[in-house]
Amino acid sequence: MKNTVLIICALLLTGTTTIASADAAAKYCGRDAARLCSGAGQGHGRIFRCLTRKKHHLSPPCRITLEVLTGVFIKHAARVCRTDVRHYCKRVRPGHGRIIQCLRRNYDLLERGCAAVVTKISGKKFRDNVYSGD
Q1: pLDDT tens track for 86-105
Q2: What is the C-alpha separation between 47 and 53, in angstroms, rounded?
Q3: Which of 13, 55, 68, 111 is the most buried (most CB within 10 A)?
Q4: How many domains does the chain have?
Q5: Do 118 and 103 touch, CB atoms closer than 8 A?
Q6: pTM listed for this prediction
Q7: Domain residues for 126?
């Protein structure tokens, strides 16, 4: 567990969390996801939500990884999408995924960085539809 904390701290200090977050989550939460969330399905954050709901049953490395990466990614997403949220979603009430839904509806208008964040949050099915023109 000490190694997990050191690796996550190193990721935070180097600023590579958005690149390494999927790798860290897979490394430290893969077994937990298979054990606790095998029926959750993939995409749209289903596995993440499942792990979050079952946080009291997670292994310590997975729990720490999710806590750190969630906070870091949310701050990153808020910073990157701030302008687009103000421009396209200013009348949307936060909560229950309404902001991300608004950003998805306006995907073609988003700045490149925000579009990348929306794609990452939304999962494979959304990416496939965006890239195929659906």
Answers
A1: 999 999 998 878 888 999 99
A2: 10
A3: 68
A4: 1
A5: yes
A6: 0.51
A7: 2-132
